[in-house]
Amino acid sequence: MDNNQLNLIEMIDYIEPSGLDYQEWCAVGMALQHEGYPVSVWENWSRRDPDRYHAGECERKWRTFRGCASPVTGGTIVQMAKEHGWAPEKGRELAWDDTIQKDPAIIVDSHYIENLEIHEPKEWCPEKELITYIETLFGTDDIVGYVTRSWSKPDNDKKYPDKGCWDRTARQLIQSLSKCKGDIGSVLGDYDPEVGAWIRFNPLDGKGCKNENVTDFRYALVESDSMDLERQNAIIRELELPVACLVHSGNKSLHAIVRVDAADYAEYRKRVDYLYNVCQKNGLKTDNQNRNPSRLSRMPGVIRNGQKQFLIATNIGKTSWDEWHEWIEKINDDLPEPENMADVWECLPRLAAPLIDGVLRQGHKMLVAGPSKAGKSFALIELSIAISEGRKWMGWQCAQGRVLYVNLELDEASCFHRFRDVYTSLGWRPDSLKNIDVWNLRGKSVPMDKLAPKLIRRAAKKNYIAVIIDPIYKVITGDENSADQMARFCNQFDLVCTELGCAVIYCHHHSKGGQGGKKSMDRASGSGVFARDPDALLDMIELELSDDVLKQEENKAVCDVCRKYLDTHFKRQEDLSQDSLCSSYQMLNYCENKLSKEQWDCLKGLVEAEKVKVKSYTAWRIEGTLREFPKFDPVNLWFRYPTHEVDEVGILSDIQLEELSSKDYAIQKRKKQAEDNRIKKQNEFEIEYANLEFEGEEVSANVLAEKLETTSKELLSWFGDGKRQKRNLKDKFEKYIGEDGKSYIRRKDK
Fold first, then answer.
1. CATH homologous superfamily of 356-543
2. 227: exposed, middle or buried (C-beta count within 10 Å: 0-12, 13-18, 19+)?
3. 126-331, CATH topology level
4. Is the pTM for the entire model greater than 0.70?
């Protein structure tokens, strides 16, 4: 372990193991091992999740970690810690894979916030504490869940709450408590004074106490047990959380019952994730085990190991979730203010200089879209070279300057060789190689939201006028068919443009099926955001070559070979007419008659090789959708490996694109969506299964169905023989009946 690096023990203190899935938990262990820490560090940290911790498991897993070409490093822990509120001290040298990124505004200044004292009630009236709590959180007809009994495991003395009761409404409980004269045990049942009692903060249906029994997703629990109580109190109030009830737990934490007012479970999860993120960013280290809407919280009005569980306050902070959320968003708003046109009319900002004449300005974004075998990577290498040399690309003049080519697909050797092959094919001298930097990331790429800050840090002082990313499918963050997720993904390109002041150029593949009947904007795979976001879209579509066109190309190629051979090996006389020079038949006859046998045999070999090469030619049409320049006429190209060549003759201009009927297009689109949904569902299943499997118990079909937001009947049908079966899952998993008569899922290889 390098003592000059950051202390990872400090880092993991910000990360709650209970909030991680199995893969993330393993990643923490791998990073600690890679950086030279002992297994005991991982072991001690993992103990913070008592529900999933198993003695000896860390050590067993530790021994299975092996080195690889792209190891999990300390940077993984640094990133996790940042996401949970840690921030490096100013003036510290960056370490591991530290990135430069802009966090949302922090409301709480940890250096200046003052602890806020907590006062116990002057008069202890248990029933009044609990009545106020119930009246604040529940309607009169809401069923309230509570727990007064506890149990302990055979191997330790720690006591846990049982499932409790859910048999009375808020009205019934309040009426009974009002008459109990301080003896709440007579109403709820006696509790163990060593451990106290608990209550659920969301109403139930009277049939159970799980998430599916919650009838209204009103509140979420914010709890932190890793900082001073007075500091917790101060941060909760500074954040103006919409707290309905703030309860002292009788130990080392406060329980803030926060209004989230979600319409359903899906919205509840989103709002709780947002709430916890804001808390973490502002120094309130929340316990991530408390996310469930059916979670228990500490009941006010009882004694716990000699300490009171009591109400500190009710109805503090903002009055509702919407009010609080709007307030947070306003504070975090770092957008520029509107500008009045009258103020800038006489002195308009200067337009950015063109990077590609008539197509793209410097500092803007461009997408090159096309199907497989279009030579998109070669086209982007050609563009890199054209910019470095200040030459033409696809017929358009490029500005000269430095360019970064981000290679995500090719191995390092292949990438460098391609650059030399393209230079050779173009016939250009490599006079400005110093203008080209290549960042080889095959096998090392990360999602674009993680790559962008790393790229910015490395490119900050290089004065690039263009960054070319090839291809982007390697770094896509989220579902490419989701408009909102792809909007966030594309924003990363804007971040690079803004921070570096350079253009960002990237390529993406077409969707499956024929493209001729679509508009250029609709051909790129995934959400329409891809095509509508960049300032310039160059779309490549293949042209179907007829035999006549191929014969003309073969004739031209043979004539060129003959002419070059004669110029090198034979001083031809002026007996070849212009017509003869354009006829392969006449050129071959002339060469056969004029050259020696050895020369003729050599030429025939060159001609045959050229004919084979012609057969590999493909033809392409580039259509453009431009934001800053007028639309250009389609550009027709030959792809003669490894470079593209503009069709100056015009032989390709008459070729019509293959049309695809709207019906066929709709069918293809539905098939693609179905396949995307299948893959997404499989991934969700395997992730949730692995998380449950990690807990070391049988995977219940009911529990797994709940995690997947479906019914157990629907889930079990996937492993049956009916129409709903999912072959991809049946190959790996199977259903079975446990000893308790309930349905479970297991891996087939076990």
1. P-loop containing nucleotide triphosphate hydrolases (3.40.50.300)
2. middle
3. Alpha-Beta Plaits (3.30.70)
4. no
